[in-house]
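User: Continuing from earlier, I have the next pair ready.

Assistant: Great, send them over.

User: Here they are, in order.

Assistant: Folding the first of the pair now:
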Amino acid sequence: MGKQGSPKSPRPGSLSLDASSGLKEYQLRWNEMLQNGDPSLGRRVSGGEYNWDKPIFVKGFKNDSVKYNASKGGSAGKKHLWWLLRHLRSIIFTFMLMGFLLLLDSLIFSLFDPTFLENSPNPSKAYDAKGRNAAYDDQEKSPVLYSRLLHMASLSLAEKDPEEDVSKFWKEQFPQASTWKPCADKNAKRAGTVNNHTGFVLVSANGGLNQQRVAVCNAVAVASLLNATLVIPKFLYSNVWKDPSQFSDIYQEETFMNTLKDDINIIKELPSHLRSLDLEAIGSLVTDADLAKEATPDEYIKNILPILLRNGIVHFLGFGNRLGFDPLPSDLQKLRCKCNFHALKFVPKIQKTGSLLVKRIRKHDSARSMLDKQLLGNFISSIPSGEQATIASPSKYLALHLRFEVDMVAYSMCDFGGGENETRELQAYREEHFPLLLERLKKMKPLSPAELRKMGRCPLTPEEAALVLAGLRFSRRTYIYLAGSQIYGGKSRMRPIISLYPNIVTKEDLLSPTELAPFKNFSSQLAALDFIACAASDVFAMTDSGSQLSSLVSGFRTYYGGGNAPTLRPSKKRLAAILQENSTIKWPSFENRVRKMVEEGQRVHIRGFGRSIYRQPRCKECMCKHQ
C-alpha cells in the first residue's frame, strides 16, 4: 500500500486505515463541488442498466477517498471527477439505503408509541365519534395523562401472542357468588294485598331508561305496601334526555300486568271520575322534596298512607330513588325483584333490533345462554335471510360502559388534562345545566381536582379504562362493544384506548341508519339496545359502580348468568392510588395491583345469618336480598 497522496491509483480491494487526512481532503473537494453546483449531482437516477448482481462499491469508494490529494493539481482533479461520475449511482444508492433504514426504524418505533395515534389505521368499523359530541371534540390535541403507562401497556400487548388471550377474567372468578337461587319467584303470590284496596297510586318517573326502570319497580313495591292499585307509570319528558317515550313504547304492558296480577292491582288509566281532580290542591301531589331519598316503609305508612286514605289517590312526581333497601320486608324485596327480572320485558321492536345487534357482534345466530332468552324473547333466532355480519368478529366480546359524558365530567368538578379550554367549557356547561350545584359549592370549602381524584370521585377516562383492561391482560384483539352516550372530547379522547384496543364498536357501527331510524330521537329506546348488548356480553366492564345502567346490567347478569357472566368493577379510589405512581411503577407491578383491585370487587361475602352468599353491591343491583 502506497503512501497517502501517492499518484498511483489504488488497487481494488485495498484499504488504508490511516485515512483521516485524505478523508478531510476529499470532503473539501465534495463541498466545493456542491457549492459550484455540479449538475451531475442533481440528476435523477433511474434504473437504467444497473446490474444488482454486481458488488456495491462502498468499499472501493472508501478506498479511493483516502487516496486523493489536492496537491496533485489538475490531473488528480480529473481523476477525482471521473471517479465521482463513475460511482455516482453507488453513492446515491448508499444514501437512499441509509435514509430508508432510518425511516423504517422510526416507523417500527412509532407502532409501539401511544402518541402515534392520529395516523395509525383503524379498522373499517372502529369507533368513530363523527357527529357525536362535536361541540366538545378537541381536534388539536389528545389529552394524555399517563403516557409512560400507555407506552408500557402497548409494548406488553405487542409481546403477547395475538391468537392467545391470557386474561383469566373471561371467566367468573367467584362462580359461587353468581349461582344463587333467584329470590324472585315469578309464580309466587303476595298474600292479602290484591283484595285490600286503599286507593290509587300514580307515578311520574324522571330520568332516563334505567332511572325509570328503578322507579317502576319501586312503585310496584310501594303500591303493594300501601295495598293500593297502581296505574301504569308515566315517564316525564327531560330536557337532558329529550325523549317523549312512555311505558308502552319501551315495555310490554300486558306482560307487566299479567306477571304481577297476583301481587297487586294494575290498571292502564285512572278512572274517569278521578281524572279531573286537582291533585296539588287536595294535597295528593308528593314530590321528591316531600319524601326522603331511599325512604323506609315506616315513612310511607306514616306520611303517605293517610293521604291515600283521605283522598283515595296519591301522585308521586319524580320518584327518583325514593324507596330504600334497608330495612325492607323480604316479600317486598322479592316483589321488586319479580318486577325487575320477570315483569319488565322490552317491546318486540326493541327485542328484534337488540337480537340483530347481538348477533352481529357474535357473528352467529344461536342463543348462548339464559341471558339471551330473557333479553331477546322470541327473537333469539330471527335474522333477515342472507344477512351477513357487518364486521368480522370473534364469538366472544367484552362490553364496556364508559361513563364519560359531558354531564358526568362537568358535575364531577375534576380535571382531565384538557387545559384552559376544558376548564372554560365545563364551567359554562355547569352554569347552564347545574346552577344549583354551583350555588351549593359556594357555601362549601372546595376540594382540589387532585383531592377529588384521590377520593375516587372522578369518572374514569377512556385512557384509564384502557389501562385497566391492559392490566387485566386482555389481548389487543379483544372485541369491545362500547355502551354509553356521547364521549366527552370525542375522537381525541378515544385515541388512547383505540391505540391499545382497535376493535371497538358501537351500535351505530353495527346497525345501519335504516335499522336505527325507528329509534331516532328516542334516547331511552337507544339505551335499551345498549342494555341488551351489555347484559348479553361475555364480560361486562363498568367504570362507575354508581351508574344505574351498570348496576342493573350487573344484577341482570348475576340473576340469569348461572355463574358464567363476570362483571369487572374497578375501584376508582384504588385505581387513583395506583395511577399516582405513573412515573415510577413497573408494568408487572401495575398488572398485579390492578388484578387484585378487580378481584376485590368480585370477592365473596358471607352474611352473618342464613348462611346465604351474596356479593356487594348486589342488593342494589338485583333490587333484592338473599333470604
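And the other member of the pair:
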Amino acid sequence: MVHSYSGFRYKLNEQEICLLNGSSCPFSHLISSHIFVSPTDMYGLIIDHIATYIKEKYGESTWSEVKFVSGVTEDTFQMDKKFSEGLPHKLIWACHDVTGDPVDELMANIGTSFYKFLGKYEFNKVLRILGRTFPQFLNGLDNLHEYLRFTFPKLKPPSFYCEHESRTGLTLHYRSKRRGFLHYVQGQIRNIAKELFQTEVVIELLDVEHDMNLEHVIMRLHFNNLDFNRQGTAYRNMNDSILEKVKITSDIFFDIFPFIIVFNRGMRIRNIGIGLLRVMAGVVGKKINQTFLLMRPFIRFRWEEIMLHSNNIFELISCEPIQEDEDGLLVYKHTDIDQMTEERHRMGDVEREKFLSLKGQMFYMEEWESICYVGIPVMSHLPQMYKSGLFINDFALHDSSRDLVLASTQQAAELKLLLHQEAQKSRNMRENMNRLKKERRRTDKLLYQMLPKSVANQLRNGESAVACCERFDSVTILFTDIVEFTKMCSSLNPLEVIEFLKVIYTNFDKVIDVHGVYKVVETIGDAYMVVSGAPTKTEHDAEFILDCASQFLIEAGKMVNMNEKIPRIDIRAGVHSGAVVAGVVGLSMPRYCLFGETVLVANKMEQNSSPMKILVSETTHNKIEESDPGLYQFEMREEIEIKDDQTIQTFFVVSRHGPPRVPSPRNCESRQDDSVNEEDDDDDLIFTGKPGRKSPTSEAEDELKKKGQLSFTPVSDAGIEIHSRNSNRTPRHSQDMTPRKSIT
C-alpha cells in the first residue's frame, strides 16, 4: 500500500505547524502559528498512550509507518521521561496521513481509551475514588493532578472547574497552556462518565478563548444529574440546635490552622495563622494578590474568580524570597509584582525553593464576610524547610504534613532509585530490541537467500507449503556451465576449486541483482540456473534473461589468469521459455524449485550450446520477436532432439540493439534481499522535515546508500519508463553480444 505524504510537512517544532498544498486542518481554530506557548517539554505518559493506541488499533506495521513518516525513532516512551511538546501532534498527524482517519476523530478516540490505558500504571484506581458523583469527579480533577505531581514533579496540567450545575448537566471550563488537545479531553470525559458513573454525556462546545497565554474552552455537558441538590438537602435537614452548639472562637481556629490566611472582599489580608506569622509577620494589612502569586488554578487572582473555584486546590507562592537580615530574623522584601510574575513562570525548581509555596483550599466565611485560605507549606525536602525558618512543631498535630515532611526524604530517595532502575530497564530493553532487530535482519537475509521474499513471507504468515505452489504460464529459464570443468578440477586441489567457483558465482550473483532474475536452486558443481517471470511475474522475462546471460559471458571473459593452471574461463548458456509449476520443496532444507518440461528443454539448450555462446529455443526466439522485433539479432542453428524424436529449432544470440532494460526495484525479487524492511529498520530512518521533502522510498534509498547497504542503484519510475522507451528504439550502432575474449 502506497501512501502520499505530500500534503503535510512533518516539521512540528515549538513554534509552528506547517500545512502545505492548501491542506485544511480539522480543528484549525485550535492550531495556529503559536500552537505552542513556550518551548517546554511534556512527560512521556500521554505520548506512550498515543503510541499504544496506534499499535492496538492499527497494528505494528502501521505504527512502523507512522514512526517513519513522523521521524520518530523510539519504540517505547518512558512515562517519567520528558519529550518535546510537538511529538504528540507529529504522531497524530502522521497517523492521519497513513490511515486517512480525521485528526479530531483520532484525538477523540485516543482520549476515549485513556482510562483503560491508565490501568497499565494503576492510575485508574485513583480515578475510581476521585468523586462520588460525576460533577464531584470533574471538580476533583485538579486534585488528581496535584496527586500526580508526586510522580511527575514538573507536571504542567490543565485546570478544570464547573459552574451552572443543574439536573440536566453543568458547564465545564477547561484551561490549559497546551493547545490542540480539546478532542482528546472530550474523549476522556465521555469515557470516564460511561465507565465510572454509567452516564452518557453529550458535549456542546460553547466558546474557545485565548487569554493570559492560556486556552480557555467552555463546554456544556448534558447528562442526567440525578444527585443534584441531594447533599444540600441533607445539610438543611440537620437539626438547627446542633448547628448552633458547634461553634469555636477565632483563637482556637487560628491555632488549629497555623497557615490560614483571611482576606476580605478588597483582597486585603485581615489575619494569618501562627505558623505563617513566624515567617511572614509583615503581610497583615497588605493585599493578598500583591503578596502572593496564584500558580493554580489558571484564573485571575480576584474575589469573583475565587468564589467560582471554591472546589479547586489553590497553589500560592510568595512574590519575594524569604531571606535573613543581619539579626538573623526573617523579613519580607518588596519589588515590582509584574516583574516577579513574569520571572516566576520561567523559574526552575532550585530558584523556586527560595520562595514560600502554599497549597490549600478557599472557602467563604459568612460571619466574617471574608475568604479563608487554609493551606500548608509545600516543601521538597528538609533543608528547604530549615532555610525557610519553619520547623516540625509549626505544623498542627492533626496535620499529616508532619509525617509527609519527615518521610519525604526517604520516599524521594526510594523513588529516585526506582526511577533509576526503570530507566536502566528501559535502556536494556532498547538495547535488546536493537539486538533482536539485527538478528532478525540476519535471519531474514539468510531466509531470503533460500526462498524468494514473497514466498518466505507467505510461509511466515502461516500458509502451508502447498498453498505457496503456483503455476506460471510464461517464464524464461537460463542454464550455464563451465566448459571442461571436470578437466580443470583435476589440476586443482579442493580448496582451489572452491575459491575458483566462489569468484565466478559471486560475480554472477551481482549480475542477477541488476537484471531482475532469480537464482532458483543452490549451485551444484558448475551448473547455474536462473529464472525470470517467477516468483515475480513480468512480461519482459525473455529480455531480462538474455540480458543476464549476455552479461555472464562478459564477466566470464574478464576472468583471465585467475590461476596459473587456468588461463581463461569459457561458459555455455542455454535459454528456453514456457510454463512451469513453482513451489517449496523439503523440510530440513526447504528450497524454491521449478518443475516442468520447460526446465528440461532449457537444460538441453545449455548442453548443446557452444563455448561463450547463448543458445535459445525457437519459443524464446519467437517471444522476443513478437514483443519487440529487431531488439536482438539471432543466428539460426540446427534442430536438436529433446526426447522421443521430438526436435526443436535453436538460435544463437549474436547482438542486442540498445541498452538493456532496467527492471523496477519493487518488481525485482532478487533485489528485495537488500531492501529495507520498514518494520525492522525504521529506527535508522530519521528525517529532518525540510521543505521539498522527497517520498519516503527515496529518502530510505538515500539513507541506505550512505551506509553502503544497497547493492544496486535505485531507479525511479520515471527513469524506468525512459529506459523502457529507449530500449525499444534501434540505435545507429548495435551492441555485439560476443565478448572480446570469446573463442571465434
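Worth noting for the second one:
The longest strand covers residues 571-585. The radius of gyration is 39 Å.
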